[in-house]
Write a structure and sequence with these properties.
about 35% helix; alpha+beta
Length: about 140
């Protein structure tokens, strides 16, 4: 009987943690839409890493803020779907999901479908994103 109760507690904690990571992912994306890099940097380790088709980028909070305020890229809409979160350890979470994002690049509207992953670590009882990847979705053939 105690094994069943412990299993329920573990499942409830896992579900709560998954919800927390999903909330943080959405808050991060919203901060990009709102032009609020201070919200995003509060969720990042220092340094953090981004990997995309543009290459790799290791950055601190000041560099992220400069990137976010650059103005050449402005996120105008996004829709996250199919989020899954795994916890290889109690203090590490890896989120993977699909994003349909719309943005303006130098004033030109662009729509892009991508698959993203984020690795979160728990530091001082707070989740922080240490690494984010973005891969362009390829059209079905």
């Amino acid at each position: 009987m105690s094994v069943i109760i412990l299993e329920r507690i573990t499942v409830m904690n896992l579900s709560k943690q998954q919800g927390e990571i999903e909330r943080l992912e959405n808050e991060f994306w919203k901060s990009m839409m709102d032009g609020a890099p201070e919200v995003a940097t509060a969720m990042l380790t220092e340094p953090a890493v981004m990997v995309s088709g543009h290459g790799t980028n290791k950055f601190d909070h000041a560099a992220y803020t400069r990137m976010a305020k650059d103005g050449r890229y402005t996120l105008t809409a996004y829709e996250i779907s199919g989020m899954d979160v795994v916890f290889p350890r109690d203090d590490v979470a890896v989120a993977s999901y699909h994003v349909n994002q719309k943005f303006e690049q130098n004033g030109k509207p662009i729509e892009m479908e991508v698959y993203d992953t984020s690795t979160w670590v728990k530091l001082d009882d707070q989740w922080r994103c240490v690494m984010h990847t973005e891969s362009a979705a390829t059209p079905a053939h």
